[in-house]
Design brief:
Layout: H1 2-19, H2 21-28, H3 33-36, E1 39-40, E2 56-61, H4 63-67, H5 71-81, E3 84-91, H6 95-101, H7 111-118, E4 123-129, H8 133-141, H9 154-158, E5 167-169, H10 173-183, E6 190-191, H11 197-200
Parallel strand pairs: 1-6
Antiparallel strand pairs: 2-4, 2-5, 3-4
Helix pairs in contact: 1-2
The protein binds uridine-5'-diphosphate and magnesium ion.
Amino acid sequence: MILLQRCLFKRTIQHLYSRSPDTAKSLVSGFPAALLGGRRAAGHRSISTPPDVRERTLVAVKPDGVQRRLVGQIIQRFEQRGFKLVGLKMLQVSEDLLSQHYCELRAKPFYPSLLHYMTSGPVVVMVWEGHNVVQTSRTMVGHTNPAEAQAGTVRGDFSIHVSRNVVHASDSLEGAQREIQLWFRGKELLSWDCCDQTSTCEV
Ligand code: UDP
Ligand code: MG
């Protein structure tokens, strides 16, 4: 019963967030983190953090990034920036999952080769959490076409061609929510408190 209530509560808040973020923020400010995020990690005390600090996004190291042993460097960039890792797994993606993930691109001429590339080997998929993480991740990842990506971005530093651009990051709050639900089950995501939380953000 409690689980059902929690689930309904989460859905309501997520829905409200997509319509009216400010109203949602003011509503949830008094609720404990566990009601809003995934599971709480064992041994960690949960303090009440503002919802904007709990924004989440999906980042994936694509098969070329895994093959080229770039996983560690990519994780390091997000850790260094101050974001919190709340979910991580390595998997061989099915065409079914990918077709849902890239549903908006189905009509594009490059779609068949994109599917082939993305299923050519394992990917490492992650959920990162923190203030403005969706937009900041996109900036850190860089332009879709590496030829136009700034130096200092993941794509600008590690890739040269649009068909092998190493990494994925969700492009909007709604997109992030959809992709996280597609790639992860709720119990695979952890809500935990970073000891440096008050040093990276005003909470
Ligand atoms: N892509 C490609 N050729 C193109 C455009 C995109 O192979 O001309 C691939 C590339 O891997 C890209 C992915 O399709 O990352 C998804 O495209 P999108 O426009 O969503 O770019 P992203 O959000 O990844 O920057
Ligand atoms: Mg995209």
